[in-house]
Amino acid sequence: MNKTLQEKITFTKVDYSDKKLSYHEFDSCTFINCVFSKSDLSNSDFLDCHFKECSFSMVKLNNTGLNNARFTGCKLLGIDFTKCKDFLLSFGFDTCSLDYSTFFKKKIKNTIFKECTIKEADFTETDLTASGFLNCDLSRTIFMHSVLEKVDFRTAYNYSFDLELNRVKKAKFSSAGIIGLLDKYQIIIE
After folding, report:
1. Cα gap 40→126, rounded to integer Å
2. Which CATH number fits domain 98-190: 2.160.20.80, 2.102.10.10, 3.20.20.70, 1.10.110.30?
3. Residues 6+ apart with CB under 8 A from 141
4. Where are the beta strands (DSSP E) in the chain?
5. Would you call 146 exposed, middle or buried from its count of C-beta atoms within 10 A (0-12, 13-18, 19+)?
6. Ramachandran region of residue 53, left (φ > 0), alpha (ψ -120 to 50) or beta?
7. Pair 37, 56: CB distance under 8 Å
8. Which residue, of 9, 80, 87, 139, has the fewest CB within 10 Å?
């Protein structure tokens, strides 16, 4: 099936709720204050696109391509990124809500999460090499059998994970954040 191509277009306050945007290709487009609630973005590609203040609740991303996608001030609650295409998957998040989202088994090296809430998200078996969680709330987020090598956790907070169940070589932590790495030992630090 041929894809509908949209290039260098700015979409402002468009409501895509419950709409099917399958088999579209968006190249260098900007979406501002758009609503994608319950949208079906399956088999579409977003190349070099920027999403600003958009809402993505219950969106379908089956075989969706996100190549160099940027999200600023967006609500991406409960998004299943595992359904996205692996090929050229890359994105960045600034001041976004990613609570309850899953990145299970994804290779998302060099991904920057800046000033985001990422509560109860799942990064199990995810390769986050050289990524950064800059001033992010990671309450009850799962990191298990994950590649966290060279990841910057220095300004992240509320994280807790087992160092023995993750690869953490050269990961960066603040001294205050070390407490979350010792939770499994049930020790008291005063």
Report:
1. 25
2. 2.160.20.80
3. 118, 119, 120, 121, 122, 123, 159
4. 4-7, 10-12, 24-27, 30-32, 45-47, 50-52, 65-67, 69-72, 91-94, 112-114, 132-134
5. buried
6. left
7. yes
8. 87
The residue written with tokens 């299970």 in the block is 104
Beta bridge partners of 134: 114
* DSSP-assigned states of every residue in 155-178: T-BS----GGGSB-TT-B--TGGG
For residue 66, which amino acid is it? L
Q: How many residues in the chain?
A: 190
Amino acid at 67: N
> What one-character DSSP code corresponds to residue 74?
-
Query: CA-to-CA distance for 34 and 145, rounded, in angstroms?
Result: 36
Question: What tokens does 174 get?
Answer: 């603040």
Tens digit of pLDDT for each residue in 107-155?
999 999 999 999 999 999 999 999 999 999 999 999 999 999 999 999 9
